[in-house]
Amino acid sequence: EDEQEKDGGEEEESERSEGRVEGVLDEDTAAEGLHTLGYSAPGTEYVYLHLTLPGRGLSDVSVLSGYTHLQKMELSSNKINDLSCVSHMPYLIELNASKNELTTYFDFKPPKNLKEVDFSHNQISKMQDLAAYQSLTKLLLDYNEIEEIRGLERCHSLTQLGLSHNRLVAIRGLQNLPIRILNLSFNQIEEVTGLKSLKALQKVDLSCNKINSLQGLEEHDLLEVINLEDNQVAELSEIKWIEGLPLLRVLNLLKNPIQEQGEYWLSAVYMLLQITELDLKKVSVEEKVDAVNRKDPPPEVVAAEDHRMHVLYNLLQPQRVLDSTLPSADHPYPMLVLLGPLFCGKRELSLKICRQFKNFFRFG
Is-contact 92 74, C-beta < 8 A? Predict the structure, then answer.
């Protein structure tokens, strides 16, 4: 009986496999990716809320049109080029369709509360108008073929935008957005313009571009991290543009010509005393003090250095007692002042003079 049941199960499985079309998602496979039971958005049913099917070689996921209660869906590392099924998921909040074969994006009816979307590693060449996606907070479009930023004007909730490894040549279309994290690395950008109105910006990655000036990063009072590795910044004077950023903590200028400037490290640290990390290295308190003492020493440091130089100079001079003459009778209170560094014997010498010439001197 066991063998018959086993044979029957294998036949049933074989029949199911024969009924499947390669790359086409069926309900049995979809069921394997369902997890996280919970109440539906209206609160009337107990349903699966999440679907995870990465790396299944899927090209057709139209069967998901019937999964209307999904709130989170991950379909990364497949061969999908059509996501129209999302039009039937009004409660979807997170969508990961990275590493697929999409040539367009958001080609579906907008879920009202869609917040996080990952379309990185696809074949998207143009950005579309996203006015209908006003709840969108995170949009990743890294590793695509986009040449121009557009369609984001009404995304008033967007706080994170990723456009690295694309074909951008300029920063445009980001006016007055609440973006806090911006990644524009590995493009062909030459100027840091178009960021002026991003007052909420906290982290910006502009590495591996063609930028030669930091102008455009000024007046971002919330900016904490700037990555400009592998660009063309050459002059120390460019640092003045970010000198007044009060919260700047991390700056990366590795692989820029500026590092060939003499005393680059100390100069950068002195101009940006608020930073804690420069070029992937921690900046210590001692280095900050050293930078200040060399570039703009306080009066006490100047006095100490001056005193050190004078002591050194005097030690090199021949020592002798200078001739002196007591004042005339018109000056009844003559005074002799002995000057010298600490612990050089001034007091002992003074007392000795007072003992030996007690008719002329008293110790004051």
Answer: no
Cβ 72 vs Cβ 86: under 8 Å: no
Angle at which helices 264-271 and 285-295 cross, to 10°: 100
What is this structure's pTM?
0.77
Gap between the terminal Cα atoms of the chain: 120
| pLDDT tens profile 193-231 | 889 999 999 999 999 999 999 999 999 999 999 999 999
DSSP-derived 3-state class of residue 73: strand
Cβ atoms of 235 and 209 within 8 Å: the answer is: no
Category of 13 on φ-ψ map: left (φ > 0), alpha (ψ -120 to 50) or beta = alpha
Say how far apart CA 364 and CA 354 lie, in whole Å: 10
| Residue type at position 155 | C
Phi then psi for residue 46, to 5 deg, are: -105, 110
Find the helix or strand (DSSP H, E) in which 28 lies.
helix 27-33
The candidate with the shortest Cα–Cα distance to 189, out of 219, 232, 223, is 232
CA atoms within 13 A on the CB side of 291: 19
